[in-house]
Every structure is written in C-alpha cells, then in structure tokens.
Design goal:
This protein is mainly beta. The chain has 1 helix and 20 strands.
Length: 249
C-alpha cells in the first residue's frame, strides 16, 4: 500500500521571515489524519530569511534532525555546542530530559532552506546530546546513503530510536530499489526534483519536490528519477505510534 502526501496539501505558515510547510500537524496547523507516521512526528520544510531565525527555546523528549538543502544555519545550545551547518550537513539533537537551543540563518544575503525532522525517542529522559556530520554528494549519488541509524553504523548519526534514514541523489532516468523487511514501514520524502515510485502490489505514482509517500506491506519499492532528484527514505517500525507529544517552535 502506498499513500501519497502531496506537497500542496501540507500545512503552511508564512511569518515573513519564515516560510514553512508542515507534513504533519504542527503548531497552529492541526489535521487529525496527519499526526505523524510510525515514530515520525514532524517533517517541516523551512525557508528562513537572511539573518533571521529562532531565538533560544526549549525542547524535551524528541530526536531532532536538521537536513540542509541550501544556505547556512547557525546553531547554539545549552550544552555549549555552536556550529554552522550547510548543504550536505545533517545535524542530530537529542532533546531528552531538556535542552535549549537557537537556530539562525548565518547569512545576511541568502535564504536557508532545510528539512527539520522530529522523531519520537525510544524512551523518555535520555541525556541530551548533539552531533553533526557532512555527507558528500558522491556518497549519495545513485545509491542509498545511510545518514542516521539506531546504532550509528557506517558513519551515520546516532538516533535513539529503531529507524534508519537514507538519502540518495538520482540523475534523470536513474532508479534505485529498496527492500522493506517484515514489520517495517517506509516513508519517502522528495526534497528536490521528481521521481516515479512503484511497489510490488501497486502501480507507479509520480512525486514532485515536497511530495511524500507512506508505504506499508510492500516488499520492494523502486524509485526512478523523472528529473534529477534528491530523496530521503525513512525505514521505520510498523504501526502508527506517533502522537501529538513534544513541544513546537
């Protein structure tokens, strides 16, 4: 079964300095049909104006991943971490028992474009933590590159939840299969370009930038680039365990 979540159907908030699209219910956008998927709670596509951002604010009991698409984002937190992340960088923040952080566009002239992803942790009150890593385009070109996992294998970020997150860059006409193990669900997010998605029991669908697909009971899917594309796949425990828990910006 493949269920599409089209870009234009997402929640949308425009605050002047922040243009944000919400795949799942977030802040003032609420849709009981889209409270999350498996342990995925939030996927926000944010464009932040030059020199603007979020001041210091708290989070707890959430794994927060920032996937940079363009521009620069400056991070500071109550653990003493400070960094600037750019395209190709992926950041993981474990809010756990409590963390305070800020996020600002580090450029005075260019927008910052990113995906912010929230994942419910495997348990509450985990010790807060932070890490970021750079993943070269060559590692993602025409292949699934593991960027976050439960055990931090293959140089990926370490997430406190039973997930695996992969990214791929596909040139027009390139295709990649992905095999789903029993008891697992998949969530595919198109970050750029467009792709054709097909499964073993369902016909092909075309997804554009911003579109997503929830996949269950498909032993194998295939992703083919209609145009040059950047795609994320979340390999998740099956079952809708996400909830409205967790604080928001």
């Amino acid at each position: 079964m493949i269920k599409l979540r089209k870009s234009q159907e997402r929640g949308h908030a425009h605050h002047g300095w922040l243009d944000s699209y919400h795949t799942f219910s977030f802040a003032h956008y609420h849709d009981p049909r889209y409270m999350g998927y498996s342990v995925l709670r939030v996927i926000n596509e944010d464009v932040i104006a030059p020199g603007r951002g979020f001041g210091m604010h708290p989070h707890n009991d959430m794994e927060i991943i920032t996937y940079m698409l363009d521009g620069e984002l400056r991070h500071e937190d109550s653990l003493g971490n400070g960094s600037v992340i750019r395209r190709g960088d992926v950041q993981r923040m474990t809010a756990g028992s409590g963390i305070v952080h800020s996020e600002y566009n580090a450029s005075d002239s260019h927008s910052a474009h990113l995906l912010q992803i929230w994942i419910l942790p495997e348990r509450i009150n985990i010790h807060p933590g932070y890490e970021d890593k750079h993943f070269e385009d060559a590692r993602k070109q025409g292949r699934w590159c593991l960027i976050a996992s439960h055990d931090g294998r293959d140089g990926s970020l370490n997430i406190h939840q039973d997930i695996a997150l992969y990214a791929a860059l596909l040139q027009q006409g390139q295709s990649l299969p992905y095999e789903a193990l029993a008891g697992r669900a998949l969530f595919l997010q198109v970050a750029r370009g467009s792709v054709r998605l097909g499964g073993t029991t369902q016909g092909e669908e075309v997804l554009e930038a911003g579109d997503a697909a929830m996949v269950e009971m498909e032993a194998l899917i295939r992703v083919e680039a209609v145009q040059d594309a950047e795609v994320l796949i979340f390999d998740l425990p099956q079952g809708n365990t996400a909830s409205a828990a967790g604080n928001t910006h």
